[in-house]
């Protein structure tokens, strides 16, 4: 029998420790005299950092994903939301997050449940319909100050000074507001330092996932989820390790040659991550090499060109350094706003279905994929925008695609046998037999 294993990553434990410590720090931040804020993970997290070195960010979506991973806790949270009458088809991340805040419980990465740490303030970008409402509702319920940032100024290839200034001015206002609600003085020096770090992180992330264009792909998608949003992890070591794999032709899977390259589109089904990814990997020896979500959510990409084509080329940090010399607050805010508006991959897809369609179509080519499992995720209306449009475009192109349904943060809506059946029939369509049948 062929035994497939996931090639171990040397810095895996280090990343796990950083994430565990970060969550613990969040839970203790205020007791220790620090500041805690919360908002969408899409927010420009370098901005509140100017309030001090002891400022912690409770990222809405990554925290909700952690909640969803603990499936019993997630099921309990979803039941609670049903009971208090929150619509079942509302953003499912929002539902588990609200449940955590309203029930006053907070989960650490080892599953320990502690008291919910009330943020000093909520501050969020608004690009998905759910973003501002998510934090506005909870802020009102909990009596915590809240402010939202409107970044819906249009796609990166149609930016102009007026649009950038509209966002920059809101950032100036936000800083004044943060000083007022926290009573702290804001440090521009710290802002500049954190801005460079944020831009470097974005460039690094697009480089990391870009390595998966290699055949075999050096890293599989489930592992990628353990790294993203860990801002202060051992990134140099990780990147070196991945580069080494590419150089030596080592793929993410051990014990088998890469037998297929499968893409996704949405967030993954957090409560059944193992059942989803390992099933494909262990039974078929295929590599789930990534998704629109994992590629576009945190990286800086060249993104849209003048014709609206999506260019999957990582932005070089050196280019940004050359473009922006940060010597004061306004310059740091402008660099932040423009980089996000122009190069954040996922932001672009909210403006026009043609951008998303083109991004998906070119992604299948760039990453040399054999097929796509398209997740009709009932828990996220934001990223569901134009799913059927690109589904049809893929079919027209003759690219193998299959759909499956569920809810990424609600274990009650994830039917494992049905998901496995979809994978089995899709593999049969791709002509990939189970490993056992060939041993
Ligand atoms: S994009 Fe999806 S998960 Fe994120 S806030 Fe919007 S609905 Fe929720």
Task: Please provide a written account of the structure.
- The chain is of the alpha/beta class and 439 residues long.
- It has helices at residues 12-28, 60-69, 71-83, 92-103, 130-142, 161-182, 188-210, 221-227, 235-248, 273-284, 292-296, 317-323, 329-343, 345-348, 353-366, 387-397, 416-430, 435-438, and strands at residues 5-6, 35-39, 55-59, 105-107, 113-115, 121-126, 146-150, 253-254, 261-264, 287-291, 301-304, 310-314, 371-377, 401-406.
- The strands form 5 sheets. Strands 3-2-6-7 form a 4-stranded parallel beta sheet, sandwiched between helices.
- Helix 6 crosses helix 13 (329-343) and helix 7 (188-210) runs parallel beside helix 13.
- It is globular and about 65 Å long.
- Bound molecules: iron/sulfur cluster (SF4).
- Iron/sulfur cluster (SF4) binds next to helix 4 and helix 5.
Low-confidence stretches: none
How many helical elements? Answer: 18
What level of helicity do the residues show? 40-55%
The CATH architecture term of the largest domain is 3-Layer(aba) Sandwich
Q: What is the CATH class name of the largest domain? A: Alpha Beta
Q: Profile the largest sheet.
A: 4 strands, parallel
- Describe the strand arrangement of the main beta sheet, using strand numbers: 3-2-6-7
Describe the secondary structure blueprint for this structure.
Layout: E1 5-6, H1 12-28, E2 35-39, E3 55-59, H2 60-69, H3 71-83, H4 92-103, E4 105-107, E5 113-115, E6 121-126, H5 130-142, E7 146-150, H6 161-182, H7 188-210, H8 221-227, H9 235-248, E8 253-254, E9 261-264, H10 273-284, E10 287-291, H11 292-296, E11 301-304, E12 310-314, H12 317-323, H13 329-343, H14 345-348, H15 353-366, E13 371-377, H16 387-397, E14 401-406, H17 416-430, H18 435-438
Parallel strand pairs: 2-3, 2-6, 6-7, 9-10, 9-13, 13-14
Antiparallel strand pairs: 1-8, 4-5, 11-12
Helix pairs in contact: 2-4, 3-4, 4-5, 6-13, 7-13, 10-17, 15-16
Bound molecules: iron/sulfur cluster (SF4).
Residues 61, 91, 93-94, 128, 130-131, 380-383 line the site of iron/sulfur cluster (SF4).
